Amino acid sequence: MVLVQLFATYRDIAGTKEMRLGAASVCGVLASLRESVPALYAELCTPDGTPRPLVRVLVNGRHIEFLSGLETPVGEKDTIALFPPLAGG
What we know:
By secondary structure, the chain is an alpha+beta fold.
């Protein structure tokens, strides 16, 4: 089970700050979210399953863009952090 940490509005949508999901890749984690929390998945991903622009998906503190993207493997000891687009000034 992979630890998934949710931040900002994602916490509100899911009703929790973290959850554990069974998956072998980031893509698998997102698929699990589609089944378990459809409203959160809709905020995270486009209809084709890719993260929406400005959504940040990190595995152990590293953006998946610098790893293997959606195919980044994950395991029991990994943490995925999901950050919505943020703005400020």
